[in-house]
């Protein structure tokens, strides 16, 4: 079981592995290719847009043909595209290669959740999701450090070679994992559409999906804007930026560990409520700037926001999956798609020529946290809960 949990963690960590390791190279690529941040960040924005679209395909395919065939296909494409990224000679070639890399990464995240839904019981699943979130948090903590070390001792193409090697490890592990679903759900394009109609018509599921998508906005704005804020704005070296970025990821991990340790005592609904509230309060703190100056004006409130995300994400994912009895792959794809497509929009928005990116992220946190919390108070009265611990 431990090996299966580690595999799930690696698969769901593909997006941060494919982005955070690359962040320290962004200011360098701005200089050597003489391109503005808006153009360079297309390698992030288009990655997530393509990634999100691919999720809508892999989920239903895994329902029809089983989990392993589409997953192995996606991992093979990820490894190949990573090598193309490494050999890119200009920004446009890198953007194209990153697009293909995203097509492969989409298989990992969407199918991993579906595998967990089938192989694990509901009570154990929430604990495993918390464990996965803790392990996943190590990816954004370690990835920028690896990227900065590669930039210091080698060159940026080796970042993508490293990513390709990680994809190869996942490919081998999936080959050695037993199939968790025999397929056979749906056999035509019309059947695929019916799957999505059923999922989109499930207001309980889609309500949770909407809340999770909203709170993704400040996180992805931070990911896309952090290197510009810390390195270009505050004049940090890549290694110091990696530490600040890693500390923020540690806050996410701490939230997930709190969920794992005290989840049964606090209760699923209460943890989600606390998480959404923390995002709102963190945004208000960032906007006020009380008792803060320099990079701490950004880092500490952002730490509150990411802690709150880590606290609310495992129980909300588990609760969302409890709202469906079939079309689990489609539901999983829809959930991850919404999360990352909103994230891609936030990445695009923060890449624009804002005079104060920190204030923009603070305003985004207040808006997303406030709307999600309001929607949650209306929604939670109608949810189907298998094991209620907070009544």
Description:
This protein is globular. The protein has one domain: MFS general substrate transporter like domains (Growth Hormone, Chain: A, Up-down Bundle), CATH 1.20.1250.20. It is built from 16 helices and no strands. The longest helix has 32 residues. It is 81% helix and 0% strand. The protein is mainly alpha-helical and 391 residues long.
Large-scale geometry: globular
Estimate percent helicity.
Answer: over 70%
Which regions have little confidence, pLDDT < 50, spanning 5+ residues?
387-391
CATH architecture grouping: Up-down Bundle
Identify the CATH homologous superfamily.
MFS general substrate transporter like domains
Radius of gyration, taken over Cα atoms and rounded to an integer in Å? 20 Å
Mean pLDDT: 84
CATH class: Mainly Alpha
CATH topology: the name is: Growth Hormone, Chain: A
Total strands: the figure is 0
**What's the total helix number?**
16
Distance between the termini: 32 Å
- H/E topology pattern: HHHHHHHHHHHHHHHH
In what range is the share of β-strand residues? under 5%
Largest sheet: none
Q: What oligomerization state is this entry in?
A: single chain
Instruction: Please indicate the count of domains.
Output: 1
Which structural class matches the secondary elements?
mainly alpha
């Amino acid at each position: 079981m431990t090996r299966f949990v580690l595999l799930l963690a690696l698969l769901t960590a593909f997006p941060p592995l494919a982005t955070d390791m690359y962040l320290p190279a962004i200011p360098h690529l701005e200089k050597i290719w003489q391109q503005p941040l808006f153009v360079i960040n297309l390698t992030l924005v288009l990655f997530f847009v393509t990634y999100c679209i691919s999720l809508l395909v892999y989920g239903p395919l895994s329902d029809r043909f089983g989990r392993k065939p589409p997953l192995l296909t996606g991992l093979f494409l990820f490894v190949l595209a990573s090598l193309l990224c490494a050999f890119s000679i200009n920004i446009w070639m890198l953007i194209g290669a990153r697009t293909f890399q995203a097509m492969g990464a989409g298989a990992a995240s969407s199918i991993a959740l579906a595998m967990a839904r089938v192989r694990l019981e509901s009570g154990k699943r929430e604990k495993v999701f918390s464990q996965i979130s803790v392990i996943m948090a190590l990816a954004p903590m370690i990835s920028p450090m690896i990227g900065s070390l590669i930039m210091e001792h080698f060159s940026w193409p080796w970042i993508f070679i490293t990513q390709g090697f990680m994809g190869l490890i996942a490919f081998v592990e999936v080959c050695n994992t037993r199939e968790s679903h025999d397929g056979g759900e749906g056999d035509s394009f019309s059947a695929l559409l019916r799957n999505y109609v059923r999922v989109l018509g499930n207001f309980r599921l889609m309500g949770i999906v909407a809340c999770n998508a909203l709170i993704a906005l400040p996180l992805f704005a931070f990911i896309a804007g952090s290197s510009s804020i810390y390195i270009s704005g505050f004049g940090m070296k890549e290694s110091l930026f990696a530490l600040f970025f890693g500390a923020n990821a540690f806050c996410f991990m701490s939230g997930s560990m709190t969920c794992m340790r005290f989840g049964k005592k606090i209760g699923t609904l209460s943890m989600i409520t606390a998480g959404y509230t923390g995002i709102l309060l963190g945004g208000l703190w960032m906007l006020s700037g009380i008792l803060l100056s320099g990079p701490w004006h950004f880092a500490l409130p952002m730490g509150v926001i990411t802690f709150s995300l880590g606290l609310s994400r495992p129980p909300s994912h588990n609760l969302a999956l409890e709202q469906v009895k079939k079309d689990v792959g489609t539901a999983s794809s829809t959930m991850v798609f919404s999360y990352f497509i909103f994230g891609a929009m936030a990445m695009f928005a923060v890449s624009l020529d804002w005079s104060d990116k920190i204030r923009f992220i603070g305003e985004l946190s207040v808006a997303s946290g406030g709307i999600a919390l309001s929607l949650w108070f209306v929604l939670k009265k109608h949810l189907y809960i298998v094991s209620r611990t907070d009544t």
